[in-house]
Amino acid sequence: MGRIRVLVADDQPIVLAGLHSMLEPEFDIVDEARDGMALLAAAERTKPDVIVTDITMPLLNGIEAARRIKKADPNVKIVFLTMHADLLYATESLKAGGSAFVLKSSGSEELVIAIHEALNGRKFVSASIAERVLQAGASHGSRDKKEVENLAKRTAGHAS
């Protein structure tokens, strides 16, 4: 198997440049998108293994784009990279088919770990919000309670 193919999406050019610098040593960046509609088109055209996307983008937000992408390609892994340290964003991102929720305030190694966790079929949430996600899953009687507990353990193990 070749290198992992990654599509990146963010409306800020400096973030896209940073993602290229951070991810290219290990992954092939197949394309980039600066809005949600461009993300849909790029995902269809490039068929990436992983999509790293922001939530807040023009034309179509990352969560709705993820829903549409996962409907068309259930195997693609989606990693949300966002400034929104908000429980609602985290839970909606995961419900939309996201495999990971990483805060932009995290270290670059956390994004790489999240991509690997996603590729291995596991969920990942930034350590600073993982406990709240765990509590929300428990309080809503999550049918995947064991998965949420394992998520918290793995995330805590990666925390600095």
Low-confidence stretches: 138-145, 147-160
Q: Given the helix and strand composition, which structural class is it?
A: alpha/beta
What is the helix fraction of residues, given as a range? 40-55%
Give me the Rg, rounded: 14 Å
Please give the domain count: 1
Task: Predict the CATH topology.
Answer: Rossmann fold
Strand content: 15-25%
From the coordinates shown, what is the CATH architecture?
3-Layer(aba) Sandwich
Q: Shape from CA axes? A: globular
Give the strand line-up of the largest sheet.
2-1-3-4-5-6
Mean pLDDT: 85
In the CATH scheme, the class would be: Alpha Beta
Biggest sheet statistics: 6 strands, parallel
Q: Work out the helix count.
A: 7
Q: How many individual β-strands?
A: 6
Order of helices and strands: EHEHEHEHEHEHH
Span of the ends, CA to CA? 31 Å
